Each structure stands twice: as structure tokens, then as C-alpha cells.
Amino acid sequence: MQSTFWFAAGVSAFPFALAGETWMVVLGLASLALAGVGCLLAVGLVRRSRRSRRWTLVLETVCLAGSALLLLIPIGANRGPVSLMVNIVLPLALVTLLRGNQMRAAFTSAGPNPTAGAGR
In sequence order, which residues have a C-beta less than 8 Å from that of residue 60 and are 6 or more positions away? Predict the structure, then answer.
């Protein structure tokens, strides 16, 4: 879900580049790259990759810290309910769900591959 928000932010930056804001191209491409990384991590989580779990925890913790800084520093950041849900609640929920011994155990013993033998 968060990757789709990053994708939408990347696509919505390009019309500003047409109006003369040349740095919006860089920001749009960075948002699209972040959305691609998020999608790859989501695929890794579905496949129960320990590396994807670890990198997802790092990415969401960094996003949560950055959003908390935006809320604490008075620079005029959006503090509406949608912004709080996307920037605080969603990363916090992911970090909470992916942490802990039970989740670590679920990613170390992935179990049998459900697609093994599907081509027979």
C-alpha cells in the first residue's frame, strides 16, 4: 500500500517539471525508485525472505523517524488525518507486525514451497 502512495507521488511530480520546476524530475524519479524497492520488498515478504524482512524493518523505521521529525519540527508539514495515517500509523503497524520472536521464527522456517511440483 505504501509503495502505491510513493508511486502516485512520483507520477504527480512530473507535471511540475513541465512547468519549469526541473528538480521535480529528480524527486519524481526518486519516488518511483522507492516505490519499486517497496514492491520488491513486498514480494520478498510474501516469499518469507529474511533479508526482505530485515530491509523492510529498516526502511519503515527510517520512514517513521522522518515522519516524526516532520511532525515535531514546525516547518509547515501536513498534519491532517490522512497524512498521519500514511506517514505514522502505516509504518508503525508494519514495524510492530514484523518484529518479535514469532515473526522471526515464521521467516526462518518458511515451510514447504507451495509451488513445488505444480508443473507435474
Answer: 91, 94, 95, 98
| Residues 38, 85 share a domain | no
HSE, side-chain direction, 13 A CA sphere, residue 59: 20
Condensed to tens digits (0 to 9), the pLDDT of residues 9-47 reads 889 988 888 888 888 899 999 999 999 999 999 999 899
End-to-end C-alpha distance for the chain, whole angstroms: 35
Is residue 99 within 8 A of residue 10, CB to CB? The reply is: no
Q: Is 36 helix (H, G, I), strand (E, B) or coil?
A: helix
Same domain (yes/no): 32, 76: no
Q: Is the pLDDT of residue 55 over 90?
A: yes
Chain centre to alpha carbon of residue 112: 28
Give the SS3 label for residue 106.
Answer: helix
Residue 21 phi/psi, 5-degree rounding, is -85, 90
pTM of the model: 0.75
Residue-range definition of the domain harbouring residue 96: 48-109
